[in-house]
TrEMBL record:
Record key words, sorted: Membrane, Transmembrane, Transmembrane helix
Transmembrane segments: 21-46
Organism placement in taxonomy: Bacteria, Bacillati, Actinomycetota, Actinomycetes, Micrococcales
Taxonomic source organism: Sanguibacter suaedae
Top-level taxon in the UniProt lineage: Bacteria
Family annotation (Pfam families): LytR_cpsA_psr
The keyword Transmembrane is assigned to this record: yes
Positions with biased composition (Low complexity): 370-408
NCBIfam families membership: lytR_cpsA_psr
Region (Disordered): 359-408
Name of the protein in question: LCP family protein
Length: 408
């Protein structure tokens, strides 16, 4: 594995105060709370609870990390939460039909969901899958240990943990361990979403309305879709999310960073659909969606309880849209491989703020009071001598803030 030795022009990602991919987690929690209130206990509750696959990774994360003592009555009460969310391209029988055959299993999409302790903020940090990071030794559920690597792509941690047995618990543990070692941020929970699950969730929702600026074609992802008003069914949606190379809507760049932007567009559209009255006002349809959602997840124990999710959702009931922020980890192209990225020093600041449960977007300081604002007339000053011109540095490349691509 090559180690980076220098840096290129930095990519600074403008923080986005909108719903973005946070919808994938927050919307599920909120609708889960509604569903719990609607169906209560009984056969429906038991079916949904039984759908959720649980993987306890605490024993696999090592001893060099703090632990928390949860409140037995409300596990999440008053605590800030860091949840690592991973969308996997595991190729079981159903996923091979969607993504084609491939060796091994990897994490196709990853982001950290941070929920502040006072429930006033929800922040999502997208992690490019091609980020080069040190991969530590990882212990698996069978007791075996995978070797460490000085530098490898972040999504390889998931593959190393999964191994030949495609063990999602070990895969999640290795990803969390790699993330924690690289950032110093302790993860409290995790969620793994399989691609066939996304297909079924989207189909249960009846498709996702979007408006595309231009036609998109990606032979690798099996995507061919026109411009303008569209309703993406599950199969088309997963192709849209997986597409990286091709033509149209940023596919020409072949960049994982451009794909993250498209995924943010899509998840904004999903949140619009989930929050609509058509779903929340139809208990039967809502339970059908939740049935597919709960079947599609492999989660840590703290997120496996529907009552706990309902409590978390209720605690977020007053959250304002302006409190939802999404960013991508600040990064630069790796000098050893233009298809990989490394984090900048700005990423260190980002992780420090998350660890301290501080807003990742700092409020601007008030403008200084204008001279003479207190009524006094300032004394005249001698004009300053002209300064030598200073060459401005080249502007950093920013990813444009994404807007929800909904029509109408």
């Amino acid at each position: 594995m090559d180690a980076p030795t220098s840096t290129g022009p930095a990519r600074h990602v403008r923080p986005r105060r909108s719903v973005g991919p946070v919808g994938r987690a927050v919307a599920l929690v909120l609708t889960g709370a509604v569903a719990f209130a609607l169906v209560g206990v009984g056969a429906t509750y038991l079916r949904l609870q039984g759908n959720i696959e649980t993987g306890d990774v605490e024993a696999l994360l090592g001893e060099d990390r703090p632990t928390r003592d949860p409140d037995p009555d409300d596990e999440f009460d008053g605590k800030d939460l860091n949840i690592l969310v991973m969308g996997t391209d595991i190729r079981d029988e159903e996923n091979v039909a969607i993504g084609g055959a491939a060796d091994g299993v990897g994490s196709d999409t990853s982001f950290l969901l941070h929920i502040s302790g006072d429930r006033s903020r929800v922040e999502v940090v997208s992690i490019p899958r091609d980020t080069l990071l040190p991969i530590p030794e990882c212990t698996h559920t069978d007791g075996s240990v995978s070797p460490s690597y000085a530098s490898s792509s972040f999504n390889s941690a998931f593959a190393l943990g999964a191994g030949a047995d495609e063990d999602l618990t070990s895969a999640a543990a290795c990803s969390r361990r790699t993330f924690e070692k690289a950032t110093g941020v302790v993860t409290d929970e995790h969620v793994v979403v399989k691609m066939d699950g996304v297909v079924k969730i989207i189909d249960a929702l009846g498709g996702i309305p979007m408006c595309l600026p231009e036609p998109m074609v990606s032979s690798d992802a099996g995507l061919s879709i026109g411009a303008g008003d569209q309703v993406l069914d599950g199969t088309t949606a997963i192709a849209f999310l997986r597409a990286r190379k091709g033509s149209g809507f940023g596919l020409d760049a072949g960049s994982d960073l451009a794909r993250i932007e498209r995924q943010q567009y899509f998840m904004s559209a999903v949140l619009e659909e989930v929050q609509g009255d058509a779903l929340l006002g139809d208990p039967g349809r809502l339970v059908a969606v939740l049935d597919e959602v709960t079947k599609s997840l492999a989660v840590s124990p703290g997120l496996a309880s529907l009552p706990s999710l309902a409590g978390l959702g209720y605690s977020l009931r007053g959250l304002q849209p302006s409190a939802l922020v999404t960013v991508t980890v600040p990064n630069v192209t790796a000098p050893t491989n233009r298809n990989r990225v490394v984090w900048t020093s700005e990423a260190d600041v980002l992780w420090e703020r998350i660890s301290a449960d501080e807003p990742i977007v700092q409020e601007p300081e008030p403008a200084p009071e204008a001279p003479g604002a207190d009524g006094e007339v300032p004394a005249p000053q001698e004009p300053a001598a002209p300064e030598a011109p200073v060459e401005e540095p080249a502007p950093a490349t920013e990813q444009p803030a994404a807007e929800t691509p909904l029509c109408g």
